[in-house]
Design goal:
single chain; 751 residues; alpha+beta; Beta-lactamase; EC 3.4.16.4; serine-type D-Ala-D-Ala carboxypeptidase; transmembrane helix; membrane
Length: 751
């Protein structure tokens, strides 16, 4: 009985226990069924999340254009290759959708991607071993061109797929790089493990206008199966992306290209430490061209020597270009008599102030007029005007009226203002001839607009308008903005005559800046460079250790263009002046730009210069078109015989006489490219889709493909380039070019 009672008791306990568990589980199931939640997590939402795929729809970044609508920066389509290695992805599929044969796949991909086959095999096999769904191939598998993508797709390799990506592309390479800047791709890993990629502006306009250029990304979501395939009823939801707005600059591509090529030529010949140049319209404040050296190619911003836009970010002691503001202040104040004589050479206001000396070691030119003092760029004349005529406190007011103590407000990032040193009597004097106090080139250009524009000072700007990239609607458009009037119209006219005398007067320091068809006025500058070595002289010594500069405008009676150029520490020949590289840049850019803009010459026959517009080229007979263009004085190169199939110039484009027009026919033959610039060679290679090997910098002195040789896509073009006036004497370069010739011969042989 006892045993029976115990058994029943234990059985009862077990029954109660199991009944309790049953009730708890049943209650739990009933609760889950009623509420649809577990631990405050909605099962319906969880299931929805698990079977729903969501992807970002990338917006297209806005483009950057020049003032004529030529694209300077845009998104270019590339492809990222990846391999699906999960065998289960091919389930229920007639054809395999995963990599079946890693070794064969690697052997076929390796020559196209230009990597070792073993690297590809290792990546695929590691993915299979780690049970990954797919693998990627690093930088070698990214930024593939359409041609490379198509070449791989034709192999029909199972498991090899592509995803379209955009990269930021700058079609002109090293062109207005410090203005446009560059944007690069950034990657960010999300909570779900996916990686989002965005293009973000880093410098220049790309950075300044990043919010407008970026646009807004969209999204697409749909329900899927475990193989990521859409269900029959996927409940697809799409939020369309909004593309970024387009930015149109005041930069003119033709003038900017002319400036870039001229600076590159001077860079090769004189190897200066720094160069800056800017071209402006003094009537509007629009920046038409701006460049610095060193510069960089925004398509590959590696090993950049100089990130700073020196035109706006690097103040320095400008030297004698500042004298134009000193003379203008004296004229405006009513204390200037240009015919009044003064003793040149040296000047010491009192015993406590160090003597001021003229640039010819203080010898001077005897007693001369103040007009001649400006023509000769006399430091003594500037000092006497500031100290005796205007008065230093009143002179400071004029410096501030010209805004030489503050940033210009140009619409570019990173602007830095110079500093007016005005604490001691000597500083107040030296400021009058550009020593001690510092300014930037853009500050000087802004101040000079008052002289060129009847006393009205204009704010410089580079953004012309912002447009909706889809509708073409103008969102914002800039117009000339007068920010002050430091001098009167009469003073500006008198100052212009003084500037004209510097270039055209008998005693002028700027005779090298004369151009054939237009009267130029301007002011030269030879700025000393502070010596950073302790215990040494305050400024560097030696005839090359200066910043040589010129600020000029033309036609001088009513300036249409204004230009500033500075060259720091050029390597000069024994009998060469520091103004040689500066004047070479100024003359080339200024005269060609004035003609290109159809500005009437004020010298010679005074005939209007008509712009040359490119007619229809594609499909026309090359010989006939060449003759017609040559008769117009244009520089034409025909590549082959027959009908024209492509050109580096578009129909309707306006060209300069210095532009090279390349006409490619349906039967291309290699032209003689001796003397061509690197830019021209790259344009030719792009049109013919040639691989290029460039040796050196400057202008072509040797090519590996002989003139008249038939050329085809993917041929190798090797050229050697040298700076002007250098001879070809490199045996090593000859060997490289010979190797390229042998490669071409091998490729022409039948298999």
């Amino acid at each position: 009985m006892k045993k029976n009672k115990t058994t029943h008791f234990m059985a009862g306990i077990l029954i109660v226990f199991f009944v309790g568990i049953f009730l708890v589980l049943t209650g739990r199931f009933l609760y889950i069924q009623a509420t649809g939640e577990i631990n405050n997590i909605s099962l319906e939402e969880w299931a929805e999340q698990k079977r729903t795929a969501s992807y970002k729809l990338n917006s297209e970044r806005g483009k950057v254009f020049d003032n004529n609508g030529m694209p300077l920066a845009y998104d270019r389509s590339t492809y990222r290759m990846y391999a699906i290695v999960k065998e289960s992805y091919s389930t229920n599929s007639k054809e395999p959708k995963h990599v079946v044969d890693p070794r064969r796949t690697a052997d076929l991909l390796a020559p196209i991607l230009d990597i070792e086959s073993s690297e590809i095999v290792t990546k695929i096999e590691n993915g299979i071993k780690n049970e990954r769904f797919q693998v990627e191939f690093g930088k070698e598998g990214r930024e593939l061109s359409q041609q490379e993508r198509d070449e791989i797709a034709e192999l029909n390799l199972p498991g090899i797929n592509f995803e379209r990506e955009a990269i930021r592309y700058y079609p002109n390479g090293m062109f207005a790089s410090h203005i446009i800047g560059f944007a690069r791709e950034t990657e960010e890993e999300q909570e779900d493990g996916t990686v989002t990629r965005d293009i973000v502006g880093v410098t220049g306009i790309e950075n300044e206008m990043d919010d407008l250029l970026s646009g807004e990304d969209g999204r697409i979501s749909f329900q899927r199966d475990k193989y990521n395939k859409k269900l029959l009823n996927p409940h697809e939801v799409i939020t369309q992306p909004k593309d970024g707005d387009d930015v149109h600059l005041t930069i003119d591509q033709k003038i900017q290209t002319l400036l870039e090529d001229t600076l590159s030529q001077v860079d090769e010949e004189y190897s200066p430490d720094r160069m800056t140049a800017i071209v402006m319209n003094p009537k509007t404040g629009e920046v038409i061209a701006m460049s610095n050296r060193p510069s960089y190619n925004p398509n590959n911003p590696a090993d950049v020597e100089n990130w700073y836009n020196d035109v706006i970010s690097t103040p320095f002691e400008a030297g004698s270009t500042v004298k134009m503001f000193t003379w203008a202040a004296a004229i405006e104040e009513g204390v200037y008599n240009g015919d009044e004589g003064y003793k040149s050479g040296s000047y010491r206001p009192n015993e406590k102030i160090t003597s001021i000396r003229d640039h010819n070691r203080g010898e001077g030119w005897g007693t001369i007029s103040y007009n001649e003092g400006f023509e000769r760029s006399s430091n003594v004349a500037a000092a006497k005007l500031a100290w005796e005529k205007i008065g230093t406190e009143k002179y400071l007011e004029y410096l501030k009226a010209f805004d030489l103590d503050e940033v210009t407000g140009i619409d570019l990032p990173g602007e830095v203002a110079g500093q007016i040193l005005y604490n001691w009597p000597l500083e107040k004097i030296t400021t009058s001839f550009g020593q001690g106090s510092t300014v930037t080139p853009i500050q000087q250009m802004k101040a000079a607009t008052a002289i060129a524009n009847e006393g009205k000072m204009l704010q410089p700007y580079v953004i012309k308008k912002i447009m909706n990239s889809n509708s073409g609607e103008v969102i914002e458009e800039k117009s000339p903005h007068v920010v002050g009037q430091p001098i009167s119209k009469e003073t500006s006219e008198q100052t212009l005559k003084l500037l004209e005398s510097v270039v055209n007067g008998e005693k002028g320091t700027g005779k090298m800046y004369q151009i054939d068809d237009y009267t130029v006025g301007g002011k030269t500058g030879t700025a000393e460079i502070p010596n950073s070595e302790a215990g040494s002289t305050p400024y560097l010594e030696g005839r090359e250790n200066y910043i040589f500069s010129f600020l000029g405008m033309a036609p001088i009676d009513a300036p249409e263009l204004m230009m500033y150029v500075s060259v720091k520490q050029p390597k000069l020949k024994a009998n060469e002046a520091g103004s040689s590289p500066v004047s070479f840049i100024f003359r080339n850019v200024m005269e060609n730009s004035l003609h290109y803009l159809n500005i009437n010459p004020d010298k010679g026959e005074n005939k209007a210069v008509e712009n040359t517009k490119i007619p229809k080229l594609i499909g026309t007979d090359a010989a006939v078109t060449e003759e017609a263009l040559t008769e117009k004085g244009l520089n034409v190169t025909v590549v082959g015989k027959g009908n024209i199939v492509s050109s580096n110039m578009e129909e309707g484009a306006e060209v300069l006489p210095t532009d090279r027009i390349i006409l490619v026919t349906d039967k291309p033959l290699m032209p003689n490219i001796t003397g061509w610039s690197m830019r021209d060679v790259l344009q030719l290679a792009d049109l013919l889709q040639l691989k290029t090997e460039l040796i050196g910098r400057g202008y072509v002195v040797k090519q590996n493909v002989e003139e008249g040789t038939p050329v085809k896509k993917e041929d190798e073009l090797g050229v050697e380039l040298l700076p002007p006036n250098e001879s070809l004497d490199s045996e090593n370069n000859d060997e490289i070019l010979n190797d390229l010739e042998e490669e071409d011969e091998d490729e022409d042989e039948p298999e």
